[in-house]
Amino acid sequence: MRFLKPILLLTASPALAEAFVRPTPQAQSTTAEFWFALATIALCLALYAVHWMVARR
User: Fold this and answer.
1) How far apart, in whole angstroms, are the C-alpha atoms of residue 36 and residue 44?
2) Which of 15, 31, 39, 52 has a C-alpha 20 to 30 A away from that of 3?
3) pTM of this prediction exceeds 0.70
C-alpha cells in the first residue's frame, strides 16, 4: 500500500486534468422546427379534446 500511494497521487493530480469545455448548442434545422410546431399543435388539439370530453359530463 505504501508504494501505491505515490502512484495514485501522481495519476489523480489536478495538473494532469484538462479544463472543462462547455458544449455549444447546435442550431435547430427548419425540419426540426416544423415537426416541433406540428407536435405542439397536436398536443394543444389533444388537450382541447380532453377538455371537451370532460366538460360534457
Assistant:
1) 12
2) 15
3) no
